[in-house]
Amino acid sequence: MRLGWAWSDLVTLLRYATSDDAFYYFQIARNWVAGNGASLDGSTATNGFHPLWLALLAGLQALTSDAELALRLGLSLGALLGAASVALLYRVVERLTHSPQAALFAAAFHAVHPTAITESVNGLETALAVFTTAWVTDRYLSLTDAASPQDRRAAILFGLAGGALMLARTDAVFLWAAVLAGLVMASRGLKSAFIAGLVSSACLLPWLAWNLFEFGSVVQVSAVALPELLRSDFIAAHGDDLSALLARSRFMLQRTFAADLPHLYAVPRGLPVWPVAAAGLAALVAALRAPAARMALKRLLPPLLGVAFTLLWHAGVRWWTREWYFAPAGWLCTAGLGVCAAGLLAQARALSPARQPAAIVGLAAIGGAMLLGLAAPPLAERWRVASEHRVQQLEAARWLATRTAPDARIGAFNAGIYSYFSGRTVVNLDGVVNADAYAARRSDRLLDYAVTARLDHVVDWRGTLPMLGCSERDDVHCERIAVIGEPLPGFAGSPIWVMRLEVGPTPARQ
Q1: Is 0.90 topped by the overall pTM?
Q2: Which of 23, 82, 105, 206 could bridge across to 416 with cysteines, CB 3.0–4.6 Å?
Q3: Does residue 123 share a domain with residue 55?
Q4: Into how many domains does the chain fold?
């Protein structure tokens, strides 16, 4: 399924799976291979990415100059990593529960889940982040297994997995810290945790050093560009007293754990969460009556707490979440689902011989219905939200490719699709992959930056373009020269406008 999505038609991919942010990776990788360094526009250095995924994409970009083929290869890699995460899910649940049936159910659930499928081909680091989460969880369980040898080689392998985890997504430091703490608390785990911590730090140190020396901070600009500006806007509107800040954090946490996470992995949007939550809680309570299930869930607790704390950080502190942030949590929650399935199966097998067959058949029927509900096409479509605005971006990129000069310089706040498909130099304006633009936005000098960057045009959705501040200078003129697409329901900023930027005296002063 995942490879089928990776090679589906481009419009379908953009509509349902591959985000605009993904094309920052693909374009930066293209420029890196071309000798222009880590840059979206070919000249402005950026650290707005997670390094391991970019390195893998750069290797694929080196294989072909065909932009769409390079895209397909990158998405195929994500699909294969997604499939590997399914296999690791089976091994983790089987290791926890010693129940092949429960492990098979959990693996099948993740294999056919529409969100898990599309997130593996979203073009971002998501599939790699899920795979490394699975790898670290599997190695952690191996090291905490009393029957496994606690040798130096196993600890080094665990440290390599942790290094890959943090290079795949740097916010995974919370997950890594949680599993290291779990290993320390486990019997005979202190030495292994120390070795693994050293190895993982050695993996991460070059990336941190490069960030510090090149950009003056170990934090990527992509981590602060949008959240800090949105925080500033909130404080300007509501004040910075503690009650206002706590209210905002509470709202974001409630949305994250009571809406976003359940709607991505438990129940499609548009349907109420509480019936599924109630049924899940009842199943959990029943499953934990089995001692083996309680022990399995206890062993899984450190990575679960690690991803929970990651989401707490994004929602409660940064006030910023995106759908791909939830993918590692979705994988671990599915492992927890496998533990629950094993506990319920154990409870059924403990019944009297007269009641046992009916209970087992009932559990199998419920499990089959859950898988059918995920995989059946009419129901599967409810999990996917169409993003027609990305299709508009592709149309605009093709307009730029045919209607602007080859040496034109284009500015865009959402610059991924435009940069990858237009064949033009596209400069990012919201700062996600451009620290210079981020600094200009913070100081309300974005129009000055656009002039300094020698932009000929700016393209973006109509509702986004006012951030450029075209009226702030008398000698800069913004002329709308094209409107691409139609207004989209529920997307107030559409359609896309193409603006020409000209610097010079107004006609009245000539």
Answers
A1: yes
A2: 23
A3: yes
A4: 2
